[in-house]
Amino acid sequence: MALRDQDNVFHRPELAQSLADKILHVAVGSAAASGVFLAAPRRTGKSTFVREDLRPALEAAGALVLYVDLWANPAANPGAVIVGAVRALLAERDGVIQRLAKRVGLSGMNVAGVQFDLERVGLDRDISLADALAALSDDTGKMIVLIIDEAQHAITTAEGSEALFALKAARDELNSSAHHGLRLVCTGSNRDKLAMLRNGKDQAFFGAPMVNFPPLAADYIAWFCARVDLPFQLDPSVVLGLFEQAGHRPEVIYAAADVFRFDFTLDPVAGPARFGNEVKNQIEAMNGELMKIVHSLTPIQSAVLRVMASQGESFAPFEAATLEMYKRALVIAGVAESEARADVPNVQAALSALQEKKLVWRAARGVYSLEEQAMAETLQRSGMLSGLS
Predict the structure, then answer these.
(1) pLDDT band at 265; cut points 50, 70, 90
(2) Cα–Cα dist 354/372, whole Å
(3) What is the distance between the alpha carbons of residues 63 and 39, in angstroms, rounded to a whole number?
(4) What is the percent of the chain with per-residue pLDDT over 70, rounded to a whole number?
(5) Among the listed ranges 129-133, 198-202, 289-293, 379-383, which one has the minimum average pLDDT value?
(6) Which of 13, 243, 300, 361 has its CA 20 to 30 A from that of 369?
(7) Can you give the pTM of this predicted structure?
(8) What is the mean pLDDT of the chain?
(9) 166: CB partners within 8 A, 6+ apart
């Protein structure tokens, strides 16, 4: 995770090497060949690790790595993003283009006198993702590792879900003896949402292992304290405790450090104590902004959000028992019992409003979840889930 300079990155080479070995060399009986799922809260350094450490470790081991970030443009259809990334990689390799051009009628791209249009590659096209990746595997002689960051976003659209099943077909083909192998690494910021890609038998990666990504810890804090460049020395043991309170999010301690970088009247002696107070201020400010949004909700929107947070992955929005729980949440919040109404239409409207406010996430098949797990923790700390469990 960079401090302020792109070259100033905390690296985790041992973790990257261990994970790369497990991805590339699947033990007998392991489901890792189906894919590996890495779950960690957003803004805790997961994506930085994938780009700066895991990808280089995989490439050093001889793999061809394709990285796709589905959160870079949340408005884009995730299926189109995945297909576009595969096409972009194909475009870099003339040999693969020539292999594919022989399979179809030719138009569009001139490679060694052959015309070929990469639009022919994709979902429901002349050349499937399985065919395209197989040609890439054969041309390079390498195992391909496809890393999909924030992979749970794929199942928010039908095309995204279709892309995942296309990748399953590609995985099955490339992992046969005819090719050099395909590994899929899916990361996500919400374990419950990510699990939807591998928990059900009707999902593309059923049974793939789910791994809790190890959070940044004491070695990271020692690195941070040694390089933060403040006019006073920080005690790593103290900062580690503050960092844990901040949910292992580097941006919190970075923001606190910036306060002192631009304080030209700072007394260095008082610096360490003030740094601790500033980290707590940053935590309170972030939680405060979140609670402002919660307090702006209508009573039914707030009730639905609180019940969802209390039920977690067992949340069933329209079951009779859940409708009764919304009514209880309304009463707890101060709505008169005679006016506490929750039926399917107004719950559906509330869920749609919560989606628009980026508080709730919906899979294409109608499963709902909190956008970020931190919301449930914040509501729990504020006492807003009392009486709902």
Answers:
(1) confident
(2) 12
(3) 23
(4) 93
(5) 198-202
(6) 243
(7) 0.85
(8) 88
(9) 123, 128, 129, 130
Tell me the average pLDDT across 274-299: 93
Q: Round to whole Å and give the CA distance between 13 and 3.
A: 18
Q: Is the model more confident about 26 or about 2?
A: 26
Helix (H, G, I), strand (E, B) or coil at 120: helix
Closest CA to 350 of 295, 298, 282: 298
DSSP-assigned letter for residue 369: E
> Which tokens in the block code for residue 292?
């402002």
pLDDT at 150: 93
Task: Indicate the residue type of 280.
Answer: K
| Closest of 330, 372, 365 to residue 347, by C-alpha | 330
Q: Where are the alpha helices (DSSP H) in 76-123?
A: 78-91, 94-101
**Beta-sheet strand order (sheet of 64-69):** 64-69, 144-149, 182-188, 36-39, 210-212
The reported pLDDT for the residue numbered 198 is 85
Query: How many whole angstroms separate alpha carbon 240 and alpha carbon 7?
Result: 23
Do 271 and 278 meet the contact criterion of CB atoms below 8 Å apart? no
127 φ, ψ (degrees, to nearest 5): -120, 120
* Rounded Cα–Cα distance for residues 51 and 159 (Å): 26
Task: Say whether 106 sits in a helix, a strand or coil.
Answer: coil
Please answer whether residues 9 and 48 qualify as being in contact, where contact means their C-beta atoms are separated by less than 8 angstroms: yes
Q: How far, in Å, CA of 24 to CA of 61, rounded?
A: 9
Nearest to 71 by CA among 153, 14, 15: 153
Bridge partner list, 2: 9
- Look up tokens 């939807």; give the residue: 196
Q: Could you tell me how far CA 145 lies from the centroid of its own chain?
A: 17
Average pLDDT over residues 209-231: 94
Q: What is the mean pLDDT of residues 162-186?
A: 92
Residues ≥6 apart with Cβ < 8 Å to 88: none
Phi-psi region of 298 (alpha: psi -120 to 50; beta: other; left: phi over 0): beta
Nearest 10 degrees: CA dihedral of 15, 21, 26, 27? -80
How large is the C-alpha radius of gyration of the chain? 24
